[in-house]
Amino acid sequence: MSCTILSMFAQPTYASVLRAARERCGLSMRQLAAQADLDQGALSKFENGHRLPSEEQLRRLAGVCDVDDDEVDYWLALRAVSEFQQKYQHAGYYNSCVGILSESAGAYNQPLDHSRAPDGSDASGNFGNSDPCE
Predict the structure, then answer these.
(1) Which residue among 3, 47, 51, 120 has its CA within the 20 to 30 Å range from the CA of 88?
(2) Residue 88 placed within a domain
């Protein structure tokens, strides 16, 4: 199979979350670049996925858009996936390894099940239909 897990499931990329954050904070590309002390051309390449921002650059962009620490960690995980992808896409083990990295980064974006307590039980203290003792 020639497609990767990343192409089979539309996972967000560092580029898409950067653009979404910029739009969310209501800044033009020129304004964000100026406030983050970046070249507008570099920011454009980041948002289009043609260039990988450094961790410091991501943090500066996040600071301008008032992004919380959890979302910054998510950005950094997506950046790591992209870095791995760029470095190892020619290797035979790329397809299997990138799925693991992508799954880890994507876990941040999953909806929480608020109907269950942290221990997995529901409001009645039940753990679902399965009996762990069987």
Answers:
(1) 47
(2) yes
